[in-house]
Amino acid sequence: MKYYAGVDIGGTNTKIGILDSHFNILAEQSIATLSQQGARTTFSRIWQTILALLAQNQLSETQLEGIGLGIPGPVVNQSVVKIAANFSWGNDFNAKQLMEDISHKNVVVENDVRAITLGEHLFGAGKGIANLIVVPIGTGIASGILLNGKVLSGSGGCAGEFGHIMVNEQGMKCGCGLTGCLETYTSAPGLVREAKKLLLETKCGEFFQRFSTDLDALQAHHIFEYAKKGDELALQVVDNFAKYLAYGLGVLINIFNPELIVLAGGVAKSAEFIIEKVQKFLPHYALGVSLQNLQIKPSQLLDSAGVKGAAALVIKS
Fold this sequence. Notes:
By secondary structure, this protein is α/β, with parallel strands linked by helices. The protein contains eleven helices and 13 strands. The chain has helices spanning 39-56, 95-103, 112-123, 183-186, 188-201, 206-211, 220-228, 232-256, 271-281, 288-291, 305-316, and strands spanning 3-9, 13-20, 25-32, 64-71, 75-76, 80-81, 93-94, 106-111, 132-136, 144-147, 150-151, 260-264, 295-298.
C-alpha cells in the first residue's frame, strides 16, 4: 500500500493530511504556519507533523511515497514560488528543494488553487470532466483552469488570476497593487466591507438590528444566513456580490468554454444559494451558446480540497 502527504499551506494555518492509495484521508491536522519564523522552521514543523500522523496510523516513513505542497502565489516548474506574498520567505523561493532537503522524499509544489483544481478533477465534483474551472472564494478569489485535461499554469505561474480583473476604476485599492479588482467585491472581506457600508446607510431590517452596533462581529456567513431568511439588506449585498461574480465568471466562460464550474472555499459553503443568484446574472455576461451545457456545482471536497489537491500532485506526478 502506498501513502501520500498532502499539505495545504496558508498564511495563518497549514493543513496536513495522510492519504492511502485509494485516496482516503487517514489522518489530518492543522498547525499554525508561523512563517515569520523562517521557511526552514515552518517546513521542519510540517515534516514533524507528517511523521507524527504516520506514527498514529502505525505507518513507517518508508511507506510514504511523496509530499504535495499547495501554496499561495505563482509557482513555476512545480518547485519555485515566484512571489511569496503571504510569507516572509522572499521571492523565487524554492519550496521543493527545501522540503526535499528536510524530508528526503519526492516533493511536488503547486499554486494552491491549481492543486485544488486537480483534486476536484480526480476526486470531487469535476471527476472525469476534461474542461473544468474551479473558483475558490475566501480571503481572495482566483480560478484553477483545467483545459482538455491539463491544468494551466501560464508562462510565469500566474494563469487563472481572474480576481484581478479591474471592474471599477474608482474602486478601492487591492492588495495586489491594482485598483478596483474583482476580488475587492467577490472575496469574503469584500462581501463584509460592502455589507458594513450598507449597514451605515440603511436603518431597517433584522440584519440591521443585529449588526448595526456590532460591525466587528460581522462575518461573510452571517450575510448569507440573513439573505436566505429574506432580509432585504442582506439580499442586496448578496445580489451585488453575485452580479460581480457573474461578470468575472462570464469572462472565463467566454474565453475557455468550460463544461463545469466548481465553487470552493469558505464562502462557497453557501454555494447553492450563490449559484442560484449567479445564474440570474450570467446571461448578461456570457455567450448563450457557452451557457447551454454549462453546469455550476459546489465543491465536493470542501475543507479537504486543499489537502486532497496537494496529495493529487504527487499521485499524478
